[in-house]
Hints:
The protein is α+β, with helices and mostly antiparallel strands.
Amino acid sequence: MADKRKTKKRKExxxxxxxxxxxxxxxxEEYAVAKWLKANVPTKKTKFLNHHVEYFTGTKAVDAxxxxxxxxxxxxxxxxxxxVTDFLHQMLLHKLFHRAKKVPVSEQELKGKSKKKEVEKSKxxxxxxxxxxxxxxxxxxxxxxxEKEKKKRKIRLEMHMEQIFLDTADAYVWIYDPMPWYYWxxxxxxxxxxxxxxxxxxxxxxxxxGVYYLSIAAAxxxxxxxxxxxxxVVVFCLVWLLTLSRHHLxxxxxxxxxxxxxxxxxxxxxxxxxxxxxxxxxSSKSKKKRKKDKAxxxxxxxxxxxxxxxxPAAPVVEESLPKExxxxxxxxxSISADKLSESESENSQRSSTDRDFxxxxxxxIDGGDTPPREHAPLS
Length: 379
């Protein structure tokens, strides 16, 4: 509301001072220039706010207008690049086109789109596994062409905040979209046709009879198509039941398909054998095997393998206390059995008390001078 009040105040001020008010609608010359630019200046198609639009660059529009009849005619409207830019700026204000900002598409967005396409292709790839070598070569060439196209810079358009026409490489999106002449012709025919149908009671008798017969023929044709559709289904079901689903016979297979009028009646029939040994049976078996292999692979990945041998355990080294026998010298064979028994008894006493001591005779304590005692013989 505030913008409308401001524009009204400006118009009133201009009327008071005697100035010519700016027209909100484009003039006939601007319409003519816009139509000529749309036909002669190269445009590109892209998406702008989820809409398919056409845009052109500012420098190409200026170059084209400098060679047009409005710059080289008897009464030129503009002669320099500045005058052309001013004229195009007026066209922009009259909303024949608007300025847009080029934003380069990042690699992450392109990768996201390519991943989605790969997922869709992988789903439909199982049905198209049997490809010939020639088709493989063609796909390689197509992939190379696609890689070259990807290397080109991809951009998207966004609304520019400054709506000004500049003699630069900025993008300008067309708003002006003139109606083609054949649209007007088709619209007029529809109007006159409806009026003629409404005036059917006023037609001559012969014409009314002709229309009556034509309507009967059209109704009979529709009934015939419906009857054929029912008949082909009945025939297919009978053959399928009698042959235990091994033989498939379709009459007029393209009758209900999305094809042209004459193509829907050709071929007359289609026969397929789907019993054991047929191509369809082999393909179904191969698909089942693939599904089983995938399921087994998934189970193997989820559950650990039980057949794996456990890692070898580290050897346990038993540490034993050093025995005195290992540190002692070997006993010669000449020693008597009495001395061996004494040494064994000493060792047993040491091990039992867990103390290191020796059994010493009284003679050894005194220094060896006193003779040993003589024990009286037992009576």
